[in-house]
Specification:
Distance between the termini of chain A: 58 Å
CATH superfamily of the largest domain in chain B: Rieske [2Fe-2S] iron-sulphur domain
CATH architecture of the largest domain in chain B: 3-layer Sandwich
CATH architecture of one domain in chain A: Up-down Bundle
CATH superfamily of one domain in chain A: Cytochrome Bc1 Complex, Chain C
Structural class of chain A: mainly alpha
Radius of gyration of chain B: 31 Å
Structural class of chain B: alpha+beta
Largest sheet of chain A: none
Helix content of chain A: 55-70%
Strand content of chain A: under 5%
Shape of chain B: elongated
CATH class of the largest domain in chain B: Mainly Beta
Strand order of the largest sheet of chain B: 1-10-9-4-3-2
Largest sheet of chain B: 6 strands, antiparallel
Number of strands of chain B: 10
Strand content of chain B: 25-35%
Number of helices of chain B: 2
Number of helices of chain A: 11
Oligomer: heterodimer
CATH class of one domain in chain A: Mainly Alpha
Chain lengths: 262, 163
C-alpha cells in the first residue's frame, strides 16, 4: 500500500538494466546532471551547463529549435508519405490525389508536410535575421554562421526538389524553369542541366532523381550539418548573450565571467 | 654517438628519402583514385539511353496547312508555319527558361505564359526577357511527301522551304 512514485522511479533507475543503458548513475548532484548530458550520444552535442540567460525566450525566440522541430515533423510525415507515393510518371500524380482523397489521414499528413515545409523556410530566415541583428554571427561564431548558410541552401534545395513530386502542371513548369537556370552557368551549364534532369527534359528520370535527392541525399546532408551546427554552439562558447561574452582585452589569457559593474 | 646522429641528419636531405617517396606514391595514387571516382560518377550519372520522344517529327502533308497559318504541335513543341514565301518550323520552347510558348491568332504574335516574352511569327523577338529569338528548325519533305522537322537541328532564320 505504501506506493510511492518517486521510490518506484528510483528503483527502476537503480536496476541493472537501466544502469547498463545509462551509465551516468542516479542522483541530482551537479556532477550527475553533467554526466547525464555528457554521456548521452545525442545530448553530448550540447554543453553540460548553460547560463540561464542563454536559454531565455528573449535571447533567441527559440527560432533555431523551432526550425529543427519543423524538420523533425517533415522527416516523420515525409517517411509516411513515402509509403503511398511512387516516383513514376504514370503514378505520381494519382498517388498524390489518393493521399488527398482516399488514404486515411493522408490529407492531414500531406498538408502537415506542405505547411511545415513552408514554415521551415520561413523559420530559417527568421532565425538568420535574429542571429544577424543581435550580432551572434561574430567571432568566434563565424564558422557556425557559414554552416548555417549551408543549411539554408539545403533547406531551399529540399523545398525545390519536393516541389516536383506532385507531378502537376505547377510542378512541371516550375522545375522546367528552375532547372533551365542551371543552363546559364558558363561552359558546363548544359552538362549540369543534363545531369540534374538525367535527360534533356523534365521526365521520368528527372522525377526519380529529384525524389532520391529529396528523400535521401538532401535529408542526410541536412542531418549531418545540423549535428555540426548544434555541436559548434558548445564549441564556440554557448549561445551568444552579450553579458556572457569575454571582454576583448588583448593579452588576457582566458575569458572571465566577472559580472560587469555598472 | 652524438656525432653519429648528427651525420645522419646531415645526410638525409641529399639521400633518397624513403618516407617522402612513399608519401608521394600514396598521395599520387589517392589522386588517381579520386580522379577516377569523379569520371566514374559523371559517366554513371549521365544516361546513355534516353526514352525521350524522337527529335524527328512528322508534320503531315504540306497541303494540310493553309497559307498564312501557324499550327502548333503541343506534343513535340514546334510551330509549323506556312507563309507566302514557303514553309518553316519554329521551336516553341521559349529561349528564356524553357516554357512552352503559345500562338495568339488575334494579336498575331507568339507569347510565353511564364514571363511574358513575345515573338513575331518568324521567331524574331519583340519583347524580353527572352535573350534570343525562337530558332528555326531543319525542315524537309520526305519521300512520301510529308513535312519532316528535326527539332534538334537549328538553321539560320528565313530559310523558307518552298514546295
Amino acid at each position: 500500500m505504501a506506493f510511492n512514485a518517486d521510490q518506484m522511479i528510483d528503483k527502476v533507475r537503480g536496476s541493472r538494466v537501466w544502469r547498463s543503458v545509462f551509465r551516468s548513475g542516479t542522483g541530482n548532484s551537479t556532477l550527475h546532471r553533467a554526466l547525464a548530458i555528457q554521456q548521452n550520444i545525442f545530448l553530448h552535442l550540447f554543453a553540460t551547463k548553460v547560463r540561464k540567460r542563454m536559454v531565455r525566450f528573449s535571447t533567441t525566440w527559440y527560432l533555431g529549435t523551432l526550425t529543427f522541430g519543423t524538420f523533425l515533423i517533415l522527416v516523420i510525415t515525409g517517411i509516411l508519405l513515402m509509403l503511398y507515393y511512387h516516383p513514376s510518371v504514370p503514378q505520381a500524380y494519382a498517388d498524390m490525389k489518393d493521399l488527398q482523397f482516399v488514404v486515411s489521414s493522408g490529407l492531414f499528413l500531406r498538408n502537415l508536410h506542405r505547411w511545415s515545409a513552408q514554415l521551415m523556410v520561413f523559420l530559417v530566415f527568421a532565425h538568420m535575421f535574429k542571429v544577424f541583428y543581435r550580432g551572434a554571427y561574430r567571432t568566434p561564431r563565424e564558422f557556425n554562421w557559414v554552416i548555417g548558410v549551408v543549411l539554408l541552401v539545403i533547406t531551399l534545395l529540399l523545398s525545390y526538389t519536393g516541389y516536383l513530386l506532385p507531378w502537376d502542371q505547377l510542378a512541371f513548369w516550375a522545375i522546367t524553369v528552375g532547372s533551365n537556370l542551371s543552363s546559364a552557368v558558363p561552359l558546363v551549364g548544359n552538362k549540369i542541366h543534363f545531369l540534374l534532369l538525367g535527360g534533356n527534359q523534365v521526365n521520368a528520370n528527372a522525377l526519380l532523381r529529384f525524389y532520391v535527392l529529396h528523400c535521401v541525399v538532401l535529408p542526410l546532408a541536412a542531418i549531418l550539418f545540423i549535428a555540426v551546427h548544434f555541436w559548434r554552439i558548445r564549441k564556440d562558447g554557448g549561445l551568444y548573450v552579450q553579458q556572457s561574452e569575454p571582454k576583448a582585452q588583448p593579452g588576457t589569457e582566458k575569458a572571465t565571467n566577472v559580472k560587469e559593474a555598472k | 654517438m652524438p656525432d653519429e646522429a648528427q651525420t645522419i641528419t646531415k645526410k638525409l636531405p641529399t639521400e633518397f628519402d624513403r618516407r617522402a617517396f612513399f608519401t608521394k606514391i600514396g598521395l599520387g595514387s589517392l589522386g588517381i583514385a579520386a580522379a577516377g571516382t569523379i569520371v566514374f560518377s559523371y559517366e554513371y550519372l549521365s544516361p546513355n539511353v534516353l526514352y525521350e520522344p524522337s527529335a524527328i517529327v512528322n508534320a503531315g502533308k504540306p497541303e494540310g496547312y493553309s497559307v498564312n497559318s501557324v499550327t502548333m504541335d503541343v506534343n513535340s513543341g514546334i510551330y509549323l508555319v506556312r507563309a507566302e514565301e514557303g514553309y518553316f518550323a519554329l521551336n516553341a520552347v521559349c529561349t528564356h527558361l524553357g516554357c512552352l510558348t503559345a500562338w495568339n491568332q488575334d494579336l498575331g504574335i507568339i507569347a510565353c505564359p511564364c514571363h511574358g516574352s513575345k515573338f513575331k511569327r518568324t521567331g524574331e523577338k519583340i519583347e524580353g526577357p527572352a535573350p534570343k529569338p525562337l530558332p528555326w528548325l531543319k525542315t524537309w519533305v520526305s519521300d512520301e511527301g510529308d513535312l519532316i522537322v528535326d527539332r534538334s537541328t537549328d538553321i539560320p532564320p528565313l530559310q523558307y522551304l518552298r514546295i
